[in-house]
Amino acid sequence: MIPSDTLKGLASDFLTADWIKFLNIGKAVFDPVSNLPNGDGLSTTAFPSGVGSIPIEIVENEAPVLYEMKEFMKNSGGIGKYRGGLGQKIVIKCIENKEMKISAAAFEKITKGPSGLKGGLSGSPGQVKISDGTKIKDKGTYIIPKGKKVIIITPGGGGYGNPKDRDQNQIKNDIKFGLVTK
User: Domain limits of the chain?
Assistant: First the structure.
């Protein structure tokens, strides 16, 4: 199985020798939509394509993987008059008793999140790690041991405009819907 993706992003290719199917296993994109001058950034969406991800049910039906989690990362979008899009946390494991091999093709926004514009703050950086604590920091091939999981945190987008100019009702809604904590 080879999941791969993206324009300017994490494009993680998972490969094991006896899996024949090649498919795109959902967007682990490391370049979120940010810095929009007229509204909040789109969460968990690649820039500039705006393409959404393949439903995890399709991936799980076609490959021996299980998505244990795929959720928004609170507070990951940069603060501004318009908030940057939120990143997400994705946890994937192999449901067969086998190791996985990851060829990490293109890491972006790992050491520093996307910058804000016109006074907006940067989004949070992304990260990729194995559930045993091993951090995947650079391009290369990594072995995910049997029974371990891949944890992907995509970065949040940068904010746009001065945070003091954000509408108070938007802030209340962000808190109400769990997008931010303060």
Answer: 12-176
